[in-house]
Here is the input.
Amino acid sequence: MRKKLLFAFVIVLYACGTNEAEADSAINMGTGQEMTEMAQKTSPLPVNSNATDATKALYQKLRSVYGHKAVSGVVANVDWNIREAENVHKWTGKWPVINVFDFINIHASKDVNPKGWLDYSDMTHVDQWHQLGGIVGCMWHWQVKANNGTNLTCSPGVKPGETSFDASQVYVEGTEENKQAIHDLDQVAGYLKTMQRKGIPVIWRPLHEAAGNTYDYEGGGAWFWWGAKGPDVYKQLWRWMYNRLVNYHKLNNLIWVWTSQIGDDVWYPGDDVVDIVGRDNYAALMYPLMKEFNQLSEQYPTKMVTLAECGNGDEVHMSLWSKIWRQGSRWSWFMTWYDYAYNNGQSEDHQFAGEAWWKDAFESGVVLDRETWKSMMK
Amino acid sequence: MEINDEIRETMKRYLLLLLICTTALAVSADERTILLGPKTIGPGWKDNILLEARHFMAAQPGDVVTVYNDNAKRTAQGAFQDPKDWQGVAPEYGCFNVSGPFRMKLSEDMLTKLRERGCYIAGHDYRILRVTLTPGSEFVEKIVWRGPAKQMRSDWSVSAELPARCFKDLKVGDGLVLHASKVQEGAAAKLMDFTWNLLEPATDGIPVGPDGCTYYINDDAPLLKLQFAGNGDNVAMRVGGKDYRLDKVGIISFVGQRNEDLTDAQRAPKEYKLEPGELFHGEKVFPNDWSGNLRITAEPFQECTENDVVILHYELLHKTEGVTPQMSFRENKGKWYDITGAKEPVWYQLDGNDIVLTFDEVSLDKVKTSGLVVTGLGFTLSRIELISAQ
Here is the structure.
């Protein structure tokens, strides 16, 4: 009888201890929490064995919260600013963790074009974002000359405003495409190298959405030139870029994110050159998102899975983040898209994710803001 | 007596003259309403309304169809589609931006199609209030710019400068007519103020037809932008674009009036504001030619369970020999396979009673993933309810 009482006492103590631990971990927002089973399956380090310590630390921190919390993120208003992050701060009083910059307008950067209207070599926003504890992300709507010889575009095709730029020639030394691609990529590498010099790790998501809507319906296809020649060419292109940035330019501050279009496994560049798998979704409803998350997690168990772009669609409103989470999605981070018209005072409502959506996200208790993230990185 | 007779005769003559004048005015008809809304053209190109062929039997080349609308989102687009193939009645009417009333000028070719099949007004994100038909003779055009002609290159690099004096008589409601030649496929015009900014978002890439295009001044904003330039020879507007030659520019003004007689006007189906639990409320005809369908997105199904049911209320159309009214339910993607997962559709024969759609694991997964399409023939759908078991 005494033994039984003692056993019961131990059980009660254990239960109390567990509750305390759970409460404590909730306060710690992921720090001190055990890694989720899903996170444990993912690679412990970035694929680049020479990754800088800061890059490894960022990767590992993302991994440590994976499944427990979602990291908040926004994209810049078109290219090189924190305009969307300012919106979120205005609405909620909190800053998102990730600000993603887009190299879409490198041709108009003042350091390479005297008539340019922006300056990618001016790192003020990037520096400040990093110093304030935020994560810097970069993506690239890689524009090349359109068939009319004047415009710049990412859209493949034969019409004057589209481009016949041949991705299969990019990695063939000496071709026009190769020269142009090296010219552009080296310019981008310069900016990324400046970030490396400053100790800034970068979530790097190039060549995104390559499969386009190939698998959505009959007759679908790639909508960016880098996917227009099919999966084999695309994979070689990815590896060519990886090689040039990592091995040639010695860029060791990049976490490589590949973007899936669902059902496009044949486009996956490979476990050795991808750190994280992303998904862009503008019909971001909680149920299909949960299915997509599960599908990608099963397909790429050693990679974290992220909602790399999201927002309201043409016909549907994105589900609230609290509901997306409740449905079972455990995306590593999310990044809402920008609304140019809203940011220029031409619209009262944000097209992709407005005040109510962001308030719900931060009130859900599962979304990290920049302050919290900063305290966790210390 | 003689004097009275004379007066009576004179009065008769005047009355006759008055009657003739009144009749002539009525026959000229001015701007006549042919469809009365409201009809919501919602998101995603899923809504449309057929303008019946009868409206065009007496129409002439040069006549103008005007669609008055409201609630247009800034990304709203419109179209006049041929029911035969869902293409634009003319290429320039296949897709255009909507910001205020939009119009279609009829040509002989277009009239041939319209008299045979009518046309759909389609697009997304606006609401039709009224559609009118106006004789071309009710518009008066004054040419305000005669070149030298400008060839708009494919790279959008060329523009013509129009001085302020061209626009001194321009007023809200008038239209700017760009007369064009050498028009290539995909030709588009861009109208900018003297600072190179767009007159308004809708003037970025106006589709250019074989003879040009017309842009209507719907409110004060673009007019003020033109007036900011001052007067005389100051550049007030820049006309750019691609793949056409700009020969001259005119201003057309409507000189008629609206005929308020609605006797022959087509009425849009009744619209209702959706109540909680309603997926559809209105009058959606599923004609016997199988052309009817209704798409519902996955959004309202997100929190559904297998215990929930969908109830569809409808009325049968008048019986037609050889037609069996029926309904089926498809997934809202790809080839619209049946929501049961079968490749061949499952048909519900209609006897006038409501249809109750229940879910199993497969069908629930499909509606939550992509939504639902209702197809069929021989009925008018009036309401769809989603009843939650909770």
About this structure: Chain B touches chain A at residues 43-44, 46, 74-75, 124, 153-157, 186, 201, 242-243, 297-299, 301-302, 333-335, 368-370 (CB under 8 Å). The longest strand of chain B covers residues 31-41. Residues 159 and 240 of chain B are 4 Å apart (CA to CA). DSSP finds four helices and 27 strands in chain B.
